[in-house]
Amino acid sequence: MRVIKVKDYERLSKLAAKIVATLIREKPDAVLGLATGNTPLGLYRELIRMHKEEGLDFSRVVTFNLDEYIGLPKNHPQSYHHFMWENFFHHVNINPSNVHIPDGNAPNIRQHCDWYEARIRKFGGIDLQILGIGRDGHIGFNEPGSSLGSRTRIKTLLEVTRRDNARFFDGKIENVPKYAITMGIGTILDAKAILLLASGESKADAIKKAVEGPITAMVPASVLQLHRDTTVIVDEAAAKYLELPWETEEDYERVESLFG
Ligand code: F6R
To answer: Whole-prediction pTM value?
Structure first.
């Protein structure tokens, strides 16, 4: 696992965008795994800027999102479809038929989950999976206790997660969907490379456990320690409890310029 400590959210977003852009320039038909939430917003903004100002070309890029609520209409302001199109896809030249987000309104959700896995395989697997991390160490909707070998499937959301998210649903927990589709931890581990982003003090405990703690289903992100090519970018606040020195951004740039 490679852990890079950067000063703040802006540096985190810029470095993450540089890593994604380098991949797309080397492999124009790269397959990206994408996340929603606050953390990747700066990354998406920077990629949009690179597209507009530097001609970064998404026309052959293929994307697979991690997760989606079950039962929300696609155009609902809280659906992950809506989030991705508003915050990213509408602003770059991606081919809509290359965009994949689990369909929370599929007539047969279990079949759809199997189709999603098959579709990822059809495109040769995910080249780079972007992840955020929950305060409890979750990745995707894989909450603590999720099987470390799990695949794309239906998850029942924890009461605490629904309560946390009620603020986005008129403050009413009964409006928050009870179920979601999520790529499994096994699906995530199959990605050729993984980029986990964490910003802010509220993530410091989860990062400490995920990066320097034991591998356990109680902290789903800790399983990334088993992956051969995972990079974690954390800002100073999220790195607060890390004990090892890890890498600074300058260390990272030096290694990249020496070894490419
Ligand atoms: C989103 C996702 C979630 C988030 C996590 C962190 O697609 O899969 O696991 O990455 O909940 O969310 P933020 O970035 O909002 O702190």
So the answer is: 0.97
Q: Where are the domains of the chain?
A: 2-259
CA of 36 to the centre of ligand 1 (A): 6
- On the question of pLDDT at 158 being above 90, the answer is no
Ramachandran angles phi, psi of 213, nearest 5° = -95, 180
Contact 26, 255 (CB under 8 A): no
DSSP assignment of 200-216: SGGGHHHHHHHHHS--B
pLDDT tops 90 at residue 164: no
Q: Which CATH number fits domain 2-259: 3.50.50.60, 3.40.50.1360, 3.90.76.10, 3.90.1150.10?
A: 3.40.50.1360
C-beta of 134 in contact with ligand 1 (< 6 A): yes
Please work out whether the CB of residue 37 comes within 6 Å of at least one atom of ligand 1: yes
Residue 99's DSSP bridge partners are 63
Q: What is the DSSP letter of 147?
A: -
| CB hemisphere CA count around 116 (13 angstroms) | 30
Q: What is the pLDDT of residue 126?
A: 98
Output the pLDDT for position 239: 98
